[in-house]
Design brief:
Layout (H helix, E strand, L loop, with lengths): L2 E3 L1 E10 L10 H4 L9 E9 L2 E2 L3 E10 L4 E11 L6 E5 L4 E4 L4 E9 L12 E2 L11 E2 L8 E4 L10 E3 L2 E3 L20 E2 L6 E2 L7 E2 L26 E2 L3 H5 L7 E8 L2 E8 L5 E5 L3 E2 L5 E2 L5 E8 L4 E7 L4 E7 L9 E2 L1
Parallel strand pairs: 2-10, 4-12
Antiparallel strand pairs: 1-12, 2-6, 3-5, 5-9, 6-7, 6-8, 10-11, 13-14, 15-16, 16-17, 18-27, 19-20, 20-21, 22-23, 24-25, 25-26
């Protein structure tokens, strides 16, 4: 069940006053202990990426201090039921941030969203008394609001694949030559460019067909030849042009997330809602060593780069893009329909 959340930034604001060495000022002359509405404004609130229940969510707020005093502000994001000041989850550690007079500052906080599926409303409030349990103090004037779609962390992936921006993608990685993995989030096997021998995605590295040793010589050819294509019947290694269609942000969204217990990127067709998930399974270097598991996913295209490289799709926690990789390295294959 989808839950819609509006979140609010809570700031516990503590004015900081500087006492000049040459001036004699008493504490009572310079600090008014009566809570006052601060000169801080919350300009924008942003939710970053896809939100899955019991997985990390990232939120960003931009604040402006239009006053003459520096504030040390304790900042949270608050998610709550549709009752004013009835918080359900405090998002973030409540770190103190210094915002100088006249300064505009953008702050990002990440935390695990533990709320059950439901609809949530929030208002932006601050507690000038620096008391997190005192929620009946002040609201910011004209606070921005934000709606966030939070999805279940169990997503039903189509094993048979999906059409994303006009390209029919397989729903699973290639396993042994001519076969797919059973589970859509499984790694499958690694392949060197334009070669049909497959390699395990965990150490020790072994081959299928068995009996092969890692070959660090550079594969030849100007494209991935059909005779060497490990894709099952009716499928093939995608071209660079087909990879690039996944990066058309007008038609496709992509989010770094954990799906059914596996880290990777979820690609969604904005028109149809069709999805494919690419796990971050890492790769084998051209020297035959495993690397980048759960940090990166690199997927072959059939398009050559130069005599030593070929184009690939690269996913990480920061973005999705295409690049080039040594042909003699080992990457997984996510094929497209012929």
């Amino acid at each position: 069940m989808t839950q819609i959340l509006k979140m609010k930034v809570l700031c516990w604001l503590i004015p900081v006053f500087t006492m000049a060495i040459v001036t004699s000022c008493s504490k009572d002359d310079n600090i008014d202990s009566t809570p006052k509405k601060p000169s801080l404004e919350i300009l924008t609130l942003t939710a970053n990426g896809t939100f899955l229940q019991n997985q990390p969510g990232s939120f960003t707020a931009t604040l402006r201090n239009s006053g003459n005093a520096t504030y040390n502000s304790r900042l949270w994001f608050y998610l709550e039921k549709p009752v004013i000041y009835n918080p359900n989850q405090l998002v973030g550690a409540g770190n103190i941030y210094s915002i100088e007079a006249g300064e505009t500052k953008t702050i990002t906080i990440s935390d695990v969203i533990t709320l059950p599926p439901d609809t949530y409303d929030c208002n932006m409030v601050f507690d000038a008394n620096n008391n997190p349990s005192d929620m009946d103090t002040y609201q910011f004037s004209n606070p921005p609001t934000l709606q966030v779609m939070v999805k279940s962390n169990t997503i039903n992936l189509n094993r048979d694949g999906a059409v994303i921006n006009g390209v029919k993608w397989a729903g699973r990685n290639v396993d042994a030559p001519g076969t797919f993995v059973t589970n859509p989030v499984d790694a499958g096997r690694f392949y060197q460019w334009n070669r049909k021998v497959s390699w395990s995605t965990t150490d020790p590295i072994t081959s299928l067909p068995s009996g092969h040793s890692w070959d660090s010589s550079m594969p030849t050819g100007t494209t991935w030849e059909k005779v060497n294509d490990p894709s099952p019947a009716g499928w093939r290694v995608p071209t660079l042009e087909e990879l690039a269609k996944l990066f058309d942000t007008n038609k496709v969204s992509n989010e770094w997330c954990k799906v059914n217990g596996t880290i990777g990127r979820l690609f969604t067709d904005k028109t149809t809602g069709n999805i494919i998930f690419l796990p971050a399974v890492g790769c084998i270097s051209n020297l035959g060593t495993m690397q980048w598991v759960d940090s990166y996913g690199l997927y072959w295209s059939s398009t050559q780069g130069d005599s030593n490289s070929a184009y690939d799709l690269v996913i990480s926690n920061s973005d999705a893009k295409y690049s080039t990789f040594y042909r003699s390295g080992g990457l997984p294959v996510r094929c497209v329909a012929e």
